[in-house]
Amino acid sequence: MATKLPESPKSTAAPHIAILGGGITGLTAAYRLTKLLPNAVVQLFEASKRLGGVLFTDRQADMLVERGADSFQRKLPWAFQLCKELGLEHEIVPTCEENRRALVVRNGKLYPVPEGFVVIRPNLLGPVLRSPLLSLPAKIRLLFERWIPKAKGLDATDYDESVASFATRRLGREAFEQLVQPLLAGIYTADPEKLSLAATMPNILKEEWQYGSLRKAFLAAKQSSNPTEASASGARYANFVSLKGGLQRLIDVLAEQLPQENIHLHSPMTLVQQTPDQKWTTQLSNGSQQGPFDGVIVALPAPCAAKVVADVDTQLSELLQSIPYASSAVVCLTLKKSEISKPLEGFGIVVPTVEGSNIVAASFSSLKFPGRVPDDILLVRVFLGGALRPEMVDLTDAELQELAATELCDLIGAHGKPVLIDVVRWREKMPQYHVGHVPLVREIEKQAAQHQGLELAGNAYHGVGIPQCVRSAEDAAQRLAHYLEQ
Fold first, then answer.
1. What are residue 379's DSSP bridge partners?
2. Of 184, 214, 447, whose CA–CA distance to 314 is shortest?
3. Which end of the chain has fewer beta carbons closer than 10 Å to its terminal beta carbon, N or C?
4. Is residue 175 assigned to a domain?
């Protein structure tokens, strides 16, 4: 149970800091502050019974199951650098080299994402033209991408459009529906008609502005491009890594860096307030007050952050509330490989919305990372819900299992009955970067900067991945440390 801290004037050598939220962002911020301000007393408050948020590794007998995120990008350096700093470098494992691709459903059958098609960019035209995923008219339309004119208003500072608008305009409707939409759904669980291109793939807009088309941009960069990068497909799996013991290892090691008496579970925060002497207090849901603190980092989802800062700044609260969130459910299943009739030549399946399926995607976890289950077992995580099917999360465990198992078995030709390991719901955990997200975040940060000693961090602002969360936490810790050292 959290305890009230003794009052500590700002002139003392030991600043007191509160971190609200015990996910990867909050833990990283707390850890970094202990390095930047070694004499600081950092208290971390987490509403649930465990640390880590959507990083949650579960061990069941001889199986390692990720209930949430299962990997992070090495190309974005911040999470990888943090692992190195924590002594976890030798525990980092890459994805298996074989079958680094996704499979896409078309008319109930599985086909690999064409080589060189990366999320929204058809780097290699040959494999796309040979793929059965697109009709002949769609392939012809795709060939015309290099001659499609640039968007009007592209020179504007805050130009933005939805991913659906951009992909349809440049690649054609069928290429968007059959390739871009399902690949993005596996990353953002978003409605592509609302998803901001400027917030999620600003480099794509830059390329259109500079070169006029994606094809011309690719050809211009071809000489300096890594051939492996050019021929990658889907989500560029070669860039993704995990830890031998699962991503929970990162959470556990971060927590070990903090005094255990300063970590408070079952401590949901409802309010942050500023005192007349420019300090901060926080209030738990049971009404008890914590503090005073010299600084506070709010590392909560935007809707929760909006509630806790409402007493400090109503405008900031309203801005935070305008960031919507999506929910999803994950059904973890196992099958005997001997009971699967179709070849599994990929790391998972993405399902276009036009297929009318109940599932968004399925990840073959045991094919993606080695040694997580016995060799004769396939571990699959099936994803349901998201922005386009929010009602799915409210189904019962039995209903979710039945939908996941039935559709998965049909797709991979499994005649055995999958064994349920787990059903987990992640309610309002994925921020939705709608068109206009970039200027919205700029306004949030401008408003928050008016309150010295109060910082915001998390996946609601500059990226939903683990590396971006780590960077957000590091930046917030740096800003707060700089303020406290003045």
1. 334
2. 447
3. C
4. yes
Is the CB of residue 353 less than 8 Å from the CB of residue 388?
yes
| Cβ–Cβ under 8 Å, residues 232 and 100 | yes
CA–CA separation, 377 and 468 (whole Å): 33
Cα 472 to Cα 397, 440, 459: the distances in Å are 34, 16, 8
Let me know if 230 is exposed, middle or buried by CB neighbors in 10 A (0-12, 13-18, 19+).
Answer: middle
Report pLDDT digits (tens) over 278-295.
999 999 999 999 999 999
What are the start-end ranges of the H helices in 330-436? 365-368, 397-412
Does residue 406 share a domain with residue 365? yes
Range of the domain at 268: 16-53+247-323+434-485
CB 363 within 8 A of CB 383: yes
**What single letter denotes the amino acid at residue 346?**
G
Residue 372: which CATH number?
A: 3.90.660.20
Q: Contact, 454 vs 18, CB < 8 A?
A: no
CA distances for 435 relative to 153, 192, 206, angstroms: 15, 10, 16
Residue holding tokens 């999360």? 393
Which strand (E) or helix (H) includes residue 307?
A: helix 302-308
Alpha carbon separation from 388 to 190, 358, 360, 426, 459 (Å, rounded): 7, 11, 9, 15, 20
Please give the model's pTM, rounded to 2 decimal places: 0.92
| CATH number for the domain that contains residue 168 | 1.10.3110.10
